[in-house]
Structures
1.
Amino acid sequence: MFSFFKKKKPLPEAHDLSVLKCDMHSHLIPGIDDGSPDVDTSITLIEGLKKLGYKKIITTPHLMADLYPNSRTTILNGFDKLVKALQKRKIDIPVRAAAEYFLDDHFDSLLEKDEPLLTIKDNLVLVEFSFASIPIDYKQKLFNMQMKGYKPILAHPERYAYLHKKFELYEELRDFGCLFQVNLLSLIGYYGKNIEAAAEKLYKLKYIELLGTDLHHERHMENLNVHLLHQKVKDIADNLPLLNDSL
Ligand SMILES: [Fe+2]
């Protein structure tokens, strides 16, 4: 029957992060680093990422000899527990485990011993520097890992304050083969104005290959749910050939 009621217009597209498809930086394996402390929190955070429109999650616990002495085994065992909990609760989203490798001496020894690293995909490995200073031998470390066939993705380059005043080092790091992963929350000033400005500058220079949540806890999740951030992400995804959806 003909209806006088106008067909409902489709709702405007959700202001979400679905354009990114895959999140490749988070701390969701329970109890093994400074991220989620237990399975229930991990589940809540994963459901939150789903609601934001993500279709795939690659979670990346810290592997840092002094503070978070994880290994391939601790990560994969923890991941196994997480997968079982997701299955039990029928939460349907592909999740994979990789790692965020701190570039310390332990990292050197993993390379020396030819221990297979947990990769984001293929040969891509997420690495981080200390927030205090760049590793003295960062060139050697980046060279060594590439000699072993890995390609470094530098986690949150915008967050290393010591690079802000030496912006040429960013270019050097890229010349040394680093891809850059910027944290979403940096884009809205969550870590401070200087970090927001550095992220903006990296964007202007087209020095961003990946965007990640670096999700640790509920407070991060609340801040990821911000309209302004979703607009900025759409803008970046429109203008840069991000790799997120290829993972
Ligand atoms: Fe992280």
2.
Amino acid sequence: MKYGIVLDSLFARHNIPAGHPEGPQRIEAILQAVQRWNPSGQLVRVAPLPAQEEWILAVHTREHWQRIQGTSGQAVSQLDPDTYTSPDSFETATLAAGSAVALTDELLQGKIDSGFALIRPPGHHAESNRVMGFCLFNNVAVAADWAIRNSAIEKVAIVDFDVHHGNGTQEIFYARSDVLYLSTHQYPFYPGTGHFNQLGQGQGEGFTVNFPLRAGAGNSFYRHLFSDLVLPIVRQFDPQLILVSAGYDAHKNDPLAGMNLDVEGFGQLVTLLNSLAQEVCEGRILFVLEGGYNLKALSEAVVCTMETSMAPKTFPIGKKEHTEEYLSYREQARRVFSTYWDL
Ligand SMILES: [Zn+2]
């Protein structure tokens, strides 16, 4: 197993006001955790790569690109209520998006079997023409679109388990049928989007799949949801590549959200997604970091994701039985999606 990672202290250079949860400390914590874990030379280091302008312009407007580029070398500026730039943010953001592409390229060339882009700033809230929610460029969207334009890949599934809805990824691919966007997220919650009834439009109708979840959902609920609904939908979509918007802010100790997953819960989801990738697309799956703001939970869950990917393991399963609440949620979701998917 050749497992590729992009992980570099360069991603700490996007340095927004002290105390902001999406700060350089996130990358530093992951660097330290990976160093402690030290999987003796089994990781293939993929060098960070700045995105070419055209890769970003394939999913963002020129106006958006210029707005971020204009902050290069400038003092800290606030672009939306929680999104800031520092002098190095433009360079770091282009490096994040480019690194997601670099890892995708390594995968498609067969140089790695799977991998993780441990990058920041995160991307899934960034819309085609709007920065939002700590995100400047939409890294996972840039990589998905790049794969379709530059390889034999025709269909990409993006599975987003960050606790927040990826409004940006949804908006970018809303009218497209070649990218499935599927998200599980706390709802109602920031950013407010991600209801069941946002299903895509035009040719893209049915290819946006949202699972809005009440606060408090934990390992058992998520695991059943993935087994019963998430995996069957992705299986039927039959992608040649799976990209995972891997945010770890659904962890029970995350300071920003109210979900109840623990590290083993994330491990279970990773196991399910990896086996799905083996089944549908010869194991082609890449994880791209989004949120996760409890540094201990974030770094442990990231290491668990990599360990589980490199040597599949089974996790002790908590509650096996379906709760009434889960069963009624599953019924509701089946009613919504059965127009498009055989569930
Ligand atoms: Zn998030």
